[in-house]
Amino acid sequence: MSFIEVNNISKTFKVSVRQSGLKNAVKSFFKRNYKYVEAVKDISFKVEKGEIVGYIGPNGAGKSTTIKILSGILIPSSGTCKINKMTPWEHRKEYVKKIGVVFGQRSQLWWDIPAEDTFDLLKDVYDINEEEYQKTKKDLIEKLNLKDIIHMPVRQLSLGQRMRCEIAASLLHSPEILFLDEPTIGLDATSKKIVREFVKKINKEKKVTVILTTHDMSDIEALAKRIILIGKGRILYDGYLRKLKNKYDNNKYINIITNDKLTIKHKGIISKEKTKDGYNIIIDSKIINLSDFLNLISKKIKIEDVEVENENIDNIIVSLYKEYEI
Amino acid sequence: MKFYLSYFKLRFITSLQYKTSALAGISTQLFFGIVYVMVYLAFYNSNSSNGPMKLPDLVTYLWLGQAFYSLFYMYYKDPEILDLIKNGNMAYELIRPKNIYFMWFCKILSQRLATVILRFLPVIIVGFLLPNPYGLSLPYSLSNFMLFLITLAISTLLMTAIITLYHVIFLNLLNEKGIVNIFSTVADILSGSTIPIPFFPIFLQKIAYILPFRYIIDLPFRIYSNNINILNGINQMIIQIIWFILILIIGCAVMKKNLKKIVVQGG
Is residue A74 within 8 angstroms of chain B, CB to CB? Predict the structure, then answer.
Protein backbone atom coordinates (compact mmCIF):
# COMPACT_ATOMS: atom_id res chain seq x y z
CA MET A 1 0.00 0.00 0.00
CA SER A 2 1.25 3.41 -0.92
CA PHE A 3 1.91 6.17 1.54
CA ILE A 4 -0.77 8.38 0.07
CA GLU A 5 -3.66 6.75 -1.74
CA VAL A 6 -6.42 8.85 -3.21
CA ASN A 7 -9.33 7.07 -4.84
CA ASN A 8 -12.10 8.67 -6.88
CA ILE A 9 -12.34 11.86 -4.89
CA SER A 10 -15.04 14.32 -5.97
CA LYS A 11 -16.10 17.55 -4.35
CA THR A 12 -19.13 19.60 -5.29
CA PHE A 13 -19.74 23.11 -4.01
CA LYS A 14 -23.06 24.86 -3.92
CA VAL A 15 -22.48 28.40 -5.09
CA SER A 16 -25.04 31.17 -5.06
CA VAL A 17 -24.95 33.18 -8.25
CA ARG A 18 -26.39 36.53 -9.16
CA GLN A 19 -25.85 39.18 -11.78
CA SER A 20 -24.41 42.48 -10.63
CA GLY A 21 -26.55 45.49 -9.86
CA LEU A 22 -29.05 46.57 -7.28
CA LYS A 23 -32.07 45.03 -8.95
CA ASN A 24 -30.51 41.62 -9.06
CA ALA A 25 -29.21 41.96 -5.53
CA VAL A 26 -32.74 42.62 -4.30
CA LYS A 27 -34.07 39.78 -6.37
CA SER A 28 -31.51 37.38 -4.99
CA PHE A 29 -32.48 38.45 -1.50
CA PHE A 30 -35.81 36.74 -1.98
CA LYS A 31 -34.94 33.98 -4.34
CA ARG A 32 -31.44 32.80 -4.53
CA ASN A 33 -30.10 30.95 -7.51
CA TYR A 34 -27.68 28.20 -6.84
CA LYS A 35 -25.27 26.50 -9.08
CA TYR A 36 -23.44 23.32 -8.30
CA VAL A 37 -19.77 23.50 -9.12
CA GLU A 38 -17.73 20.36 -9.30
CA ALA A 39 -14.35 21.49 -8.08
CA VAL A 40 -12.74 18.10 -8.49
CA LYS A 41 -14.10 15.06 -10.26
CA ASP A 42 -13.03 11.52 -9.72
CA ILE A 43 -9.43 12.15 -8.77
CA SER A 44 -7.18 9.20 -8.03
CA PHE A 45 -3.45 8.99 -7.52
CA LYS A 46 -0.79 7.43 -5.37
CA VAL A 47 2.29 8.94 -3.83
CA GLU A 48 5.13 7.05 -2.20
CA LYS A 49 6.99 8.15 0.88
CA GLY A 50 9.76 10.62 0.16
CA GLU A 51 8.46 11.71 -3.22
CA ILE A 52 8.11 15.31 -4.37
CA VAL A 53 5.06 15.71 -6.55
CA GLY A 54 4.23 18.87 -8.47
CA TYR A 55 0.53 19.41 -8.70
CA ILE A 56 -0.18 21.81 -11.52
CA GLY A 57 -3.06 23.18 -13.46
CA PRO A 58 -4.59 26.50 -14.50
CA ASN A 59 -6.43 28.78 -12.09
CA GLY A 60 -9.62 27.22 -10.80
CA ALA A 61 -8.58 23.72 -11.80
CA GLY A 62 -9.11 22.29 -8.33
CA LYS A 63 -5.58 22.26 -7.00
CA SER A 64 -6.27 24.01 -3.74
CA THR A 65 -9.44 22.00 -3.22
CA THR A 66 -7.42 18.81 -3.52
CA ILE A 67 -4.84 20.08 -1.06
CA LYS A 68 -7.60 21.01 1.36
CA ILE A 69 -9.13 17.56 1.10
CA LEU A 70 -5.76 15.91 1.57
CA SER A 71 -5.05 17.99 4.63
CA GLY A 72 -8.39 17.13 6.23
CA ILE A 73 -9.93 20.58 5.96
CA LEU A 74 -12.67 19.76 3.48
CA ILE A 75 -14.72 16.62 3.35
CA PRO A 76 -15.11 15.32 -0.21
CA SER A 77 -18.55 14.60 -1.59
CA SER A 78 -17.42 11.10 -2.49
CA GLY A 79 -14.33 8.98 -2.70
CA THR A 80 -11.78 7.66 -0.25
CA CYS A 81 -8.35 8.76 0.77
CA LYS A 82 -5.83 6.98 2.94
CA ILE A 83 -2.72 8.77 3.98
CA ASN A 84 -0.35 6.93 6.26
CA LYS A 85 -3.28 4.57 6.97
CA MET A 86 -5.51 7.43 8.12
CA THR A 87 -8.46 9.14 6.50
CA PRO A 88 -7.65 12.85 6.87
CA TRP A 89 -11.12 14.19 7.63
CA GLU A 90 -12.07 11.37 9.96
CA HIS A 91 -8.94 11.28 12.07
CA ARG A 92 -8.36 15.01 11.73
CA LYS A 93 -6.83 15.72 15.12
CA GLU A 94 -4.45 12.81 14.98
CA TYR A 95 -3.68 13.18 11.31
CA VAL A 96 -2.74 16.86 11.26
CA LYS A 97 0.06 16.26 13.73
CA LYS A 98 1.86 14.46 10.94
CA ILE A 99 1.43 17.05 8.24
CA GLY A 100 2.56 20.58 7.56
CA VAL A 101 0.63 22.87 5.26
CA VAL A 102 1.65 26.19 3.77
CA PHE A 103 -1.02 28.21 2.03
CA GLY A 104 0.86 30.79 0.01
CA GLN A 105 -2.01 33.23 0.06
CA ARG A 106 -2.77 33.06 3.74
CA SER A 107 -0.95 33.70 6.94
CA GLN A 108 -0.75 31.73 10.14
CA LEU A 109 1.57 34.15 11.88
CA TRP A 110 0.25 36.69 14.33
CA TRP A 111 0.36 40.04 12.65
CA ASP A 112 1.35 42.22 15.58
CA ILE A 113 4.04 40.16 17.23
CA PRO A 114 7.37 38.67 16.15
CA ALA A 115 7.25 35.34 14.33
CA GLU A 116 9.12 33.69 17.16
CA ASP A 117 6.19 34.24 19.52
CA THR A 118 3.93 32.42 17.07
CA PHE A 119 6.48 29.62 16.93
CA ASP A 120 6.38 29.35 20.71
CA LEU A 121 2.61 29.08 20.58
CA LEU A 122 2.78 26.41 17.89
CA LYS A 123 5.13 24.48 20.10
CA ASP A 124 2.31 24.12 22.60
CA VAL A 125 -0.32 23.58 19.90
CA TYR A 126 1.60 20.54 18.71
CA ASP A 127 2.88 19.52 22.14
CA ILE A 128 6.50 19.53 21.01
CA ASN A 129 8.95 18.94 23.80
CA GLU A 130 11.33 21.75 24.61
CA GLU A 131 14.55 20.10 23.54
CA GLU A 132 13.25 18.92 20.21
CA TYR A 133 11.61 22.27 19.59
CA GLN A 134 14.81 24.20 20.17
CA LYS A 135 16.68 21.87 17.88
CA THR A 136 14.15 22.10 15.05
CA LYS A 137 13.84 25.83 15.44
CA LYS A 138 17.57 26.34 15.27
CA ASP A 139 17.77 24.15 12.22
CA LEU A 140 14.96 26.00 10.45
CA ILE A 141 16.38 29.40 11.30
CA GLU A 142 19.65 28.39 9.78
CA LYS A 143 18.27 26.76 6.64
CA LEU A 144 15.74 29.44 5.86
CA ASN A 145 18.04 32.27 6.89
CA LEU A 146 15.65 33.71 9.45
CA LYS A 147 18.10 34.95 12.04
CA ASP A 148 17.53 38.64 11.43
CA ILE A 149 13.81 38.61 10.83
CA ILE A 150 12.44 36.31 13.48
CA HIS A 151 12.40 39.01 16.15
CA MET A 152 10.59 41.61 14.09
CA PRO A 153 6.82 42.06 14.23
CA VAL A 154 5.37 40.14 11.32
CA ARG A 155 3.60 43.17 9.89
CA GLN A 156 6.99 44.74 9.21
CA LEU A 157 8.31 41.83 7.17
CA SER A 158 8.39 41.76 3.39
CA LEU A 159 6.39 39.10 1.60
CA GLY A 160 9.42 36.92 0.99
CA GLN A 161 10.61 37.17 4.57
CA ARG A 162 7.14 36.39 5.83
CA MET A 163 6.80 33.40 3.55
CA ARG A 164 10.02 31.95 4.87
CA CYS A 165 8.68 32.36 8.39
CA GLU A 166 5.40 30.75 7.32
CA ILE A 167 7.24 27.74 5.99
CA ALA A 168 9.25 27.46 9.18
CA ALA A 169 6.04 27.66 11.20
CA SER A 170 4.59 24.76 9.25
CA LEU A 171 7.59 22.57 9.91
CA LEU A 172 8.21 23.07 13.62
CA HIS A 173 6.53 19.79 14.46
CA SER A 174 8.67 17.87 11.94
CA PRO A 175 5.80 16.62 9.78
CA GLU A 176 6.14 13.60 7.51
CA ILE A 177 4.17 15.22 4.73
CA LEU A 178 4.37 18.78 3.56
CA PHE A 179 1.68 20.38 1.44
CA LEU A 180 2.76 23.57 -0.24
CA ASP A 181 0.00 25.54 -1.89
CA GLU A 182 1.72 28.12 -4.07
CA PRO A 183 4.61 28.75 -1.70
CA THR A 184 6.52 31.01 -4.08
CA ILE A 185 3.68 33.28 -5.10
CA GLY A 186 4.94 36.85 -5.31
CA LEU A 187 8.48 36.07 -4.19
CA ASP A 188 11.65 37.50 -5.67
CA ALA A 189 14.35 35.35 -7.22
CA THR A 190 16.46 35.06 -4.06
CA SER A 191 13.58 34.10 -1.83
CA LYS A 192 12.36 31.59 -4.39
CA LYS A 193 15.77 30.04 -4.48
CA ILE A 194 15.99 29.79 -0.71
CA VAL A 195 12.56 28.19 -0.53
CA ARG A 196 13.32 25.69 -3.29
CA GLU A 197 16.65 24.67 -1.87
CA PHE A 198 15.11 24.30 1.52
CA VAL A 199 12.34 22.02 0.24
CA LYS A 200 14.92 19.92 -1.54
CA LYS A 201 17.02 19.67 1.58
CA ILE A 202 14.27 18.55 3.93
CA ASN A 203 13.06 16.07 1.37
CA LYS A 204 16.50 14.57 1.14
CA GLU A 205 17.50 14.71 4.78
CA LYS A 206 14.25 13.92 6.51
CA LYS A 207 12.45 12.01 3.77
CA VAL A 208 9.55 14.43 3.93
CA THR A 209 6.96 13.74 1.27
CA VAL A 210 6.11 16.97 -0.53
CA ILE A 211 3.07 17.84 -2.59
CA LEU A 212 3.44 21.22 -4.19
CA THR A 213 1.10 23.34 -6.26
CA THR A 214 2.42 26.27 -8.18
CA HIS A 215 2.08 28.33 -11.32
CA ASP A 216 5.79 28.86 -11.52
CA MET A 217 7.13 26.09 -13.69
CA SER A 218 10.68 26.71 -12.64
CA ASP A 219 9.60 25.61 -9.15
CA ILE A 220 8.48 22.34 -10.62
CA GLU A 221 11.61 21.97 -12.70
CA ALA A 222 13.81 22.61 -9.71
CA LEU A 223 11.96 20.30 -7.36
CA ALA A 224 9.65 17.70 -8.76
CA LYS A 225 10.44 14.67 -10.84
CA ARG A 226 6.83 13.78 -11.09
CA ILE A 227 3.92 16.01 -11.95
CA ILE A 228 0.19 15.63 -11.82
CA LEU A 229 -1.63 17.89 -14.24
CA ILE A 230 -5.18 18.74 -13.37
CA GLY A 231 -7.71 20.73 -15.38
CA LYS A 232 -11.40 21.37 -14.88
CA GLY A 233 -11.29 19.09 -11.87
CA ARG A 234 -9.86 16.06 -13.64
CA ILE A 235 -6.41 14.54 -13.74
CA LEU A 236 -5.02 14.88 -17.24
CA TYR A 237 -1.48 13.71 -16.84
CA ASP A 238 0.32 11.90 -14.09
CA GLY A 239 3.90 10.95 -14.66
CA TYR A 240 7.49 12.02 -15.04
CA LEU A 241 8.22 15.56 -15.98
CA ARG A 242 11.12 14.29 -18.07
CA LYS A 243 8.85 12.18 -20.20
CA LEU A 244 6.61 15.11 -20.86
CA LYS A 245 9.59 17.19 -21.78
CA ASN A 246 10.93 14.58 -24.16
CA LYS A 247 7.62 14.47 -25.89
CA TYR A 248 7.69 18.16 -26.56
CA ASP A 249 11.42 18.71 -26.65
CA ASN A 250 11.64 18.78 -30.43
CA ASN A 251 9.26 21.66 -30.68
CA LYS A 252 10.66 24.91 -31.92
CA TYR A 253 8.88 28.18 -31.54
CA ILE A 254 9.44 30.39 -34.55
CA ASN A 255 8.45 33.99 -34.63
CA ILE A 256 8.56 35.44 -38.17
CA ILE A 257 8.22 39.09 -38.93
CA THR A 258 6.95 39.74 -42.41
CA ASN A 259 4.49 41.82 -44.38
CA ASP A 260 3.57 39.02 -46.75
CA LYS A 261 0.78 36.55 -46.43
CA LEU A 262 1.93 33.06 -45.71
CA THR A 263 -0.02 29.97 -46.68
CA ILE A 264 1.83 26.84 -45.83
CA LYS A 265 0.89 23.27 -45.14
CA HIS A 266 3.52 20.74 -44.33
CA LYS A 267 4.01 17.75 -42.11
CA GLY A 268 5.60 18.75 -38.84
CA ILE A 269 3.98 22.14 -38.49
CA ILE A 270 2.07 21.95 -35.27
CA SER A 271 0.43 25.32 -35.24
CA LYS A 272 0.41 28.60 -37.08
CA GLU A 273 -0.83 31.81 -35.63
CA LYS A 274 -1.08 35.24 -37.22
CA THR A 275 0.33 38.08 -35.16
CA LYS A 276 0.32 41.82 -35.68
CA ASP A 277 3.42 41.87 -37.82
CA GLY A 278 3.95 38.27 -38.82
CA TYR A 279 3.40 34.72 -37.65
CA ASN A 280 4.04 32.45 -34.68
CA ILE A 281 4.70 28.93 -35.81
CA ILE A 282 5.46 25.83 -33.82
CA ILE A 283 7.20 22.99 -35.65
CA ASP A 284 8.29 19.54 -34.67
CA SER A 285 11.96 19.48 -35.61
CA LYS A 286 12.00 15.69 -35.70
CA ILE A 287 9.69 15.72 -38.71
CA ILE A 288 10.83 18.88 -40.38
CA ASN A 289 14.15 20.32 -39.36
CA LEU A 290 14.64 23.97 -38.87
CA SER A 291 16.71 24.78 -41.91
CA ASP A 292 14.33 22.92 -44.20
CA PHE A 293 11.47 24.81 -42.75
CA LEU A 294 13.16 28.18 -43.13
CA ASN A 295 14.13 27.29 -46.65
CA LEU A 296 10.59 26.42 -47.43
CA ILE A 297 9.10 29.62 -46.24
CA SER A 298 11.83 31.90 -47.47
CA LYS A 299 10.88 30.79 -50.95
CA LYS A 300 7.32 31.89 -50.36
CA ILE A 301 7.67 35.12 -48.47
CA LYS A 302 10.15 37.83 -47.68
CA ILE A 303 11.32 37.39 -44.12
CA GLU A 304 12.23 40.57 -42.34
CA ASP A 305 13.25 38.99 -39.09
CA VAL A 306 13.06 35.60 -37.47
CA GLU A 307 13.39 34.41 -33.92
CA VAL A 308 13.67 30.80 -32.89
CA GLU A 309 13.01 29.66 -29.38
CA ASN A 310 13.48 26.23 -27.89
CA GLU A 311 10.86 24.46 -25.88
CA ASN A 312 10.62 25.46 -22.26
CA ILE A 313 8.46 24.15 -19.51
CA ASP A 314 6.07 27.09 -19.59
CA ASN A 315 5.41 26.48 -23.26
CA ILE A 316 4.90 22.78 -22.60
CA ILE A 317 2.27 23.58 -20.06
CA VAL A 318 0.58 26.06 -22.38
CA SER A 319 0.47 23.49 -25.14
CA LEU A 320 -0.76 20.86 -22.71
CA TYR A 321 -3.54 23.17 -21.60
CA LYS A 322 -4.35 23.70 -25.27
CA GLU A 323 -4.24 20.02 -26.04
CA TYR A 324 -6.67 19.21 -23.26
CA GLU A 325 -8.73 22.30 -23.94
CA ILE A 326 -8.61 23.61 -20.41
CA MET B 1 -3.88 22.70 28.94
CA LYS B 2 -0.46 24.14 28.44
CA PHE B 3 -1.51 25.39 25.04
CA TYR B 4 -4.42 27.30 26.51
CA LEU B 5 -2.17 28.94 29.07
CA SER B 6 0.40 30.00 26.53
CA TYR B 7 -2.35 31.22 24.29
CA PHE B 8 -3.63 33.36 27.10
CA LYS B 9 -0.13 34.66 27.71
CA LEU B 10 0.23 35.66 24.09
CA ARG B 11 -3.12 37.39 24.01
CA PHE B 12 -2.24 39.21 27.18
CA ILE B 13 1.10 40.36 25.77
CA THR B 14 -0.65 41.57 22.64
CA SER B 15 -3.29 43.48 24.53
CA LEU B 16 -0.60 45.13 26.66
CA GLN B 17 0.47 46.90 23.49
CA TYR B 18 -2.76 48.84 23.48
CA LYS B 19 -2.30 51.02 26.55
CA THR B 20 -4.25 53.94 25.16
CA SER B 21 -7.23 51.75 24.55
CA ALA B 22 -7.09 50.55 28.15
CA LEU B 23 -6.89 54.11 29.47
CA ALA B 24 -9.79 55.16 27.27
CA GLY B 25 -11.78 52.16 28.51
CA ILE B 26 -11.14 53.02 32.15
CA SER B 27 -12.18 56.63 31.76
CA THR B 28 -15.32 55.65 29.86
CA GLN B 29 -16.27 53.22 32.58
CA LEU B 30 -15.67 55.82 35.30
CA PHE B 31 -17.76 58.35 33.43
CA PHE B 32 -20.61 55.94 32.90
CA GLY B 33 -20.41 54.74 36.49
CA ILE B 34 -20.82 58.26 37.81
CA VAL B 35 -23.63 59.07 35.39
CA TYR B 36 -25.54 55.90 36.20
CA VAL B 37 -25.18 56.43 39.93
CA MET B 38 -26.41 60.03 39.68
CA VAL B 39 -29.38 59.07 37.53
CA TYR B 40 -30.48 56.39 39.97
CA LEU B 41 -29.87 58.71 42.94
CA ALA B 42 -32.11 61.33 41.37
CA PHE B 43 -34.67 58.66 40.73
CA TYR B 44 -34.55 57.45 44.35
CA ASN B 45 -34.66 61.01 45.76
CA SER B 46 -37.68 62.08 43.76
CA ASN B 47 -39.62 58.95 44.56
CA SER B 48 -40.74 58.59 48.15
CA SER B 49 -41.53 54.86 47.95
CA ASN B 50 -38.39 52.76 47.84
CA GLY B 51 -37.18 51.09 44.66
CA PRO B 52 -36.83 47.31 44.38
CA MET B 53 -33.21 47.39 45.59
CA LYS B 54 -31.67 49.14 48.58
CA LEU B 55 -29.76 52.20 47.42
CA PRO B 56 -26.24 51.11 48.54
CA ASP B 57 -26.84 47.68 46.98
CA LEU B 58 -27.85 49.31 43.75
CA VAL B 59 -24.87 51.66 43.66
CA THR B 60 -22.55 48.75 44.37
CA TYR B 61 -24.20 46.78 41.57
CA LEU B 62 -23.67 49.67 39.17
CA TRP B 63 -20.01 50.07 40.05
CA LEU B 64 -19.34 46.35 39.73
CA GLY B 65 -21.08 46.49 36.38
CA GLN B 66 -18.74 49.20 35.19
CA ALA B 67 -15.63 47.51 36.60
CA PHE B 68 -16.39 44.26 34.80
CA TYR B 69 -18.01 45.82 31.77
CA SER B 70 -15.25 44.75 29.37
CA LEU B 71 -15.59 41.19 30.58
CA PHE B 72 -19.34 40.83 30.37
CA TYR B 73 -20.82 42.99 27.65
CA MET B 74 -22.58 40.62 25.34
CA TYR B 75 -22.01 42.45 22.05
CA TYR B 76 -18.52 41.09 21.93
CA LYS B 77 -17.35 39.71 18.59
CA ASP B 78 -13.91 38.30 18.30
CA PRO B 79 -12.29 40.05 15.34
CA GLU B 80 -9.73 37.32 14.86
CA ILE B 81 -12.28 34.53 14.63
CA LEU B 82 -14.58 36.52 12.35
CA ASP B 83 -11.65 37.35 10.09
CA LEU B 84 -10.54 33.81 9.76
CA ILE B 85 -14.04 32.70 8.83
CA LYS B 86 -14.40 35.46 6.26
CA ASN B 87 -11.05 35.34 4.57
CA GLY B 88 -10.52 31.62 4.66
CA ASN B 89 -7.75 31.46 7.25
CA MET B 90 -10.05 28.89 8.81
CA ALA B 91 -7.92 26.51 6.77
CA TYR B 92 -5.03 27.05 9.15
CA GLU B 93 -7.32 26.63 12.12
CA LEU B 94 -8.38 23.23 10.85
CA ILE B 95 -4.87 21.86 10.51
CA ARG B 96 -4.20 22.21 14.22
CA PRO B 97 -4.43 19.05 16.27
CA LYS B 98 -6.87 20.62 18.70
CA ASN B 99 -10.58 20.72 19.19
CA ILE B 100 -11.70 23.84 17.33
CA TYR B 101 -14.50 24.58 19.78
CA PHE B 102 -12.16 24.70 22.74
CA MET B 103 -9.61 26.63 20.78
CA TRP B 104 -12.19 29.32 20.14
CA PHE B 105 -13.52 29.14 23.66
CA CYS B 106 -10.03 29.76 24.87
CA LYS B 107 -9.40 32.57 22.38
CA ILE B 108 -12.50 34.41 23.48
CA LEU B 109 -11.89 33.78 27.16
CA SER B 110 -8.31 34.95 27.00
CA GLN B 111 -9.17 38.04 24.99
CA ARG B 112 -11.82 39.06 27.47
CA LEU B 113 -9.71 38.29 30.53
CA ALA B 114 -6.74 40.12 29.06
CA THR B 115 -8.90 43.19 28.51
CA VAL B 116 -10.58 43.18 31.90
CA ILE B 117 -7.40 42.57 33.88
CA LEU B 118 -6.03 45.89 32.69
CA ARG B 119 -9.21 47.76 33.47
CA PHE B 120 -11.21 46.56 36.44
CA LEU B 121 -8.93 47.53 39.28
CA PRO B 122 -8.82 51.31 38.74
CA VAL B 123 -12.61 51.41 38.51
CA ILE B 124 -12.98 49.40 41.73
CA ILE B 125 -10.49 51.62 43.55
CA VAL B 126 -12.19 54.83 42.43
CA GLY B 127 -15.53 53.26 43.40
CA PHE B 128 -14.27 52.65 46.93
CA LEU B 129 -12.77 56.11 47.25
CA LEU B 130 -15.98 57.90 46.37
CA PRO B 131 -18.01 59.14 49.38
CA ASN B 132 -21.38 57.79 50.40
CA PRO B 133 -23.87 57.46 48.65
CA TYR B 134 -21.85 57.54 45.42
CA GLY B 135 -19.33 54.89 46.27
CA LEU B 136 -18.93 51.16 46.12
CA SER B 137 -19.62 49.37 49.43
CA LEU B 138 -17.63 46.51 50.91
CA PRO B 139 -19.08 43.03 50.43
CA TYR B 140 -21.85 42.12 52.87
CA SER B 141 -19.82 39.38 54.52
CA LEU B 142 -16.77 37.26 53.84
CA SER B 143 -18.90 34.32 52.75
CA ASN B 144 -20.84 36.61 50.39
CA PHE B 145 -17.55 37.72 48.96
CA MET B 146 -16.33 34.16 48.50
CA LEU B 147 -19.54 33.14 46.79
CA PHE B 148 -19.33 36.30 44.68
CA LEU B 149 -15.88 35.27 43.47
CA ILE B 150 -16.97 31.72 42.69
CA THR B 151 -20.11 32.75 40.80
CA LEU B 152 -18.11 35.44 39.02
CA ALA B 153 -15.69 32.78 37.79
CA ILE B 154 -18.52 30.54 36.61
CA SER B 155 -20.28 33.45 34.95
CA THR B 156 -17.10 34.21 33.05
CA LEU B 157 -17.21 30.66 31.71
CA LEU B 158 -20.93 30.92 30.98
CA MET B 159 -20.44 34.20 29.12
CA THR B 160 -17.62 32.64 27.10
CA ALA B 161 -19.77 29.62 26.23
CA ILE B 162 -22.59 31.85 24.97
CA ILE B 163 -20.28 34.08 22.96
CA THR B 164 -18.46 31.06 21.55
CA LEU B 165 -21.83 29.62 20.54
CA TYR B 166 -22.61 32.54 18.36
CA HIS B 167 -19.21 32.49 16.79
CA VAL B 168 -19.79 28.84 16.00
CA ILE B 169 -23.07 29.78 14.33
CA PHE B 170 -21.20 32.39 12.23
CA LEU B 171 -19.18 29.63 10.70
CA ASN B 172 -21.84 28.98 8.11
CA LEU B 173 -23.28 32.48 7.91
CA LEU B 174 -21.05 34.86 6.10
CA ASN B 175 -22.78 38.02 7.15
CA GLU B 176 -23.13 37.75 10.87
CA LYS B 177 -24.47 41.16 11.67
CA GLY B 178 -28.26 40.78 11.65
CA ILE B 179 -28.83 37.64 13.64
CA VAL B 180 -26.10 38.28 16.14
CA ASN B 181 -27.02 41.88 16.80
CA ILE B 182 -30.53 40.82 17.75
CA PHE B 183 -29.25 37.98 19.85
CA SER B 184 -26.60 40.01 21.63
CA THR B 185 -28.96 42.88 22.40
CA VAL B 186 -31.43 40.50 23.99
CA ALA B 187 -28.64 38.75 25.86
CA ASP B 188 -27.19 42.02 27.07
CA ILE B 189 -30.48 43.37 28.39
CA LEU B 190 -31.52 40.12 30.02
CA SER B 191 -28.14 39.73 31.70
CA GLY B 192 -28.93 42.83 33.73
CA SER B 193 -26.06 44.92 32.49
CA THR B 194 -28.11 47.92 31.37
CA ILE B 195 -30.79 47.92 34.06
CA PRO B 196 -30.70 45.63 37.11
CA ILE B 197 -33.30 42.90 36.73
CA PRO B 198 -35.33 43.84 39.86
CA PHE B 199 -36.24 47.05 38.02
CA PHE B 200 -37.75 45.12 35.10
CA PRO B 201 -41.53 44.87 34.75
CA ILE B 202 -42.78 41.64 36.25
CA PHE B 203 -43.34 39.76 32.98
CA LEU B 204 -39.84 40.59 31.77
CA GLN B 205 -38.39 39.55 35.10
CA LYS B 206 -40.05 36.17 34.66
CA ILE B 207 -38.50 35.78 31.24
CA ALA B 208 -35.11 36.94 32.51
CA TYR B 209 -35.17 34.42 35.34
CA ILE B 210 -35.87 31.54 32.97
CA LEU B 211 -33.05 32.35 30.54
CA PRO B 212 -29.34 31.83 31.20
CA PHE B 213 -28.19 35.43 30.69
CA ARG B 214 -28.95 36.75 34.16
CA TYR B 215 -26.54 34.24 35.67
CA ILE B 216 -23.75 36.21 34.05
CA ILE B 217 -24.19 39.58 35.77
CA ASP B 218 -27.26 39.66 37.94
CA LEU B 219 -26.34 36.69 40.11
CA PRO B 220 -22.77 37.45 41.21
CA PHE B 221 -23.30 41.19 41.63
CA ARG B 222 -26.35 40.76 43.82
CA ILE B 223 -24.67 38.09 45.91
CA TYR B 224 -21.92 40.59 46.67
CA SER B 225 -24.26 42.87 48.57
CA ASN B 226 -26.45 40.04 49.88
CA ASN B 227 -29.36 41.20 47.70
CA ILE B 228 -29.43 37.49 46.97
CA ASN B 229 -28.57 35.67 50.18
CA ILE B 230 -26.06 32.86 50.52
CA LEU B 231 -28.58 30.02 50.48
CA ASN B 232 -30.41 31.26 47.38
CA GLY B 233 -27.07 32.13 45.89
CA ILE B 234 -25.81 28.57 46.19
CA ASN B 235 -29.02 27.17 44.70
CA GLN B 236 -28.78 29.53 41.78
CA MET B 237 -25.13 28.79 41.35
CA ILE B 238 -26.07 25.19 40.66
CA ILE B 239 -28.44 26.34 37.92
CA GLN B 240 -25.65 28.56 36.63
CA ILE B 241 -23.32 25.58 36.35
CA ILE B 242 -26.01 23.53 34.59
CA TRP B 243 -26.52 26.32 32.05
CA PHE B 244 -22.82 26.51 31.43
CA ILE B 245 -22.52 22.79 30.75
CA LEU B 246 -25.63 22.78 28.60
CA ILE B 247 -24.47 25.66 26.40
CA LEU B 248 -21.03 24.13 26.15
CA ILE B 249 -22.53 20.88 24.87
CA ILE B 250 -24.76 22.70 22.39
CA GLY B 251 -21.77 24.70 21.14
CA CYS B 252 -19.68 21.56 20.62
CA ALA B 253 -22.52 19.86 18.77
CA VAL B 254 -23.19 22.81 16.48
CA MET B 255 -19.47 23.10 15.76
CA LYS B 256 -19.28 19.45 14.81
CA LYS B 257 -22.23 19.81 12.48
CA ASN B 258 -20.94 23.02 10.90
CA LEU B 259 -17.46 21.66 10.32
CA LYS B 260 -18.95 18.94 8.16
CA LYS B 261 -20.31 21.40 5.66
CA ILE B 262 -17.62 23.99 5.93
CA VAL B 263 -16.54 25.92 2.87
CA VAL B 264 -13.18 27.63 3.04
CA GLN B 265 -13.51 31.03 1.42
CA GLY B 266 -11.11 32.13 -1.29
CA GLY B 267 -8.55 30.03 -3.23
Answer: yes
